[in-house]
Amino acid sequence: MKTWAEVADIQPLAGKILMNSMKKNRISHAYLLQGKRGTGKEDIARLLAKGLFCKEKNGVEPCHSCTECKRIDSGNHPDVHWVIPEGQSIKIEQIRNLQKEFTYSGLESNQKVYIIQGAETLTTNAANRILKFLEEPSKQTTAIMLTENSQSILPTIRSRCQIIDLKPLNTRDFQQQLLEQGMTNKNAALMSALTNNLNEAFEMSNDEWFASARKIVVQLVEMFVTNPKDVFLFVHNHWINHFKDKTEQEQGMDLLLLAFKDILYYQIGNESSLVFFTLDDELLQKAAMSFSQHMLIETLDAVLQAKRKLKQNVQPTLVIEQLALQIQR
């Protein structure tokens, strides 16, 4: 999303709220943009920043071509600061460095923007530190916090922000976009279930690591069906070695979740909802016969719990080991 018109088209309520704020020059001192991956959080944050710095705006729309806009796009604007997780969390040292910036005037103006990406990963100490800014707002400073899970953020932080809810995009519409851009039916179905971002969808569909991840998930499901006693060994020899960092581990869980959803859909006759398997896939048919409906529902719940544990920074090897044992039962 490059313009407010696009935001209003894809996220009507969020677009209306933010465009009205821009028109009336009533930008909040702090925003909390909450929505799943691919719903446009980063794009909206960038548009807000451009709206505050662009000198060639057409109404609320930034020009995208001036020096200010170009530097914001490149991440090199001296008065627009992005804070992203270091490893699995945003640490107190990062917020201390940010607080130092609070005490200075902007390098080129008195306006400053801070964008905190993955705000749900703030450690407790870091979250308490950021409260200092939120409790003492400055008209010259705007904080934009981005999160997939606002419930993991301190209530005291949420209460000091204007919360903007971003709705999941229409999966069917996005799938059609992918098909129109030349993606195969099979890949378009899977990618539309994993992301709402066009570029990300094509990057994943052409990525060798992702192709291997998909294969490993297929093999794991096959192990559960044909040779459950060796699942634990497979997890250690293949899964753990492939899904290494937090993002990869969560993506592995997403793929596993979609695979077991497909088995349930096939079992109840909802073949039109298949995204991971194809209707003629022999493994899908075998799995549907091997798992009862009750077992599949329990498995889906177990995968969702495993995803939550990863977000809570539980040791990843322990998470997949426990999940494998739960599914084996």
UniProtKB/TrEMBL annotation:
Residues 245-328 form the DNA polymerase III delta subunit C-terminal domain. GO terms for biological process: DNA-templated DNA replication. One of its GO terms (molecular function) is 3'-5' exonuclease activity. Keywords: DNA replication, DNA-directed DNA polymerase, Nucleotidyltransferase, Transferase. It catalyses: DNA(n) + a 2'-deoxyribonucleoside 5'-triphosphate = DNA(n+1) + diphosphate. Its EC number is 2.7.7.7. InterPro entries: DNA_pol_HolB (IPR004622), DNA_pol_III_delta_C (IPR015199), DNA_Rep/Repair_Clamp_Loader (IPR050238), P-loop_NTPase (IPR027417). NCBIfam families: holB (TIGR00678), PRK08058.1 (NF005972). PANTHER family: DNA POLYMERASE III SUBUNIT DELTA, REPLICATION FACTOR C / DNA POLYMERASE III GAMMA-TAU SUBUNIT. This is DNA polymerase III subunit delta'. It comes from Virgibacillus halodenitrificans. The lineage of its organism: Bacteria, Bacillati, Bacillota, Bacilli, Bacillales.
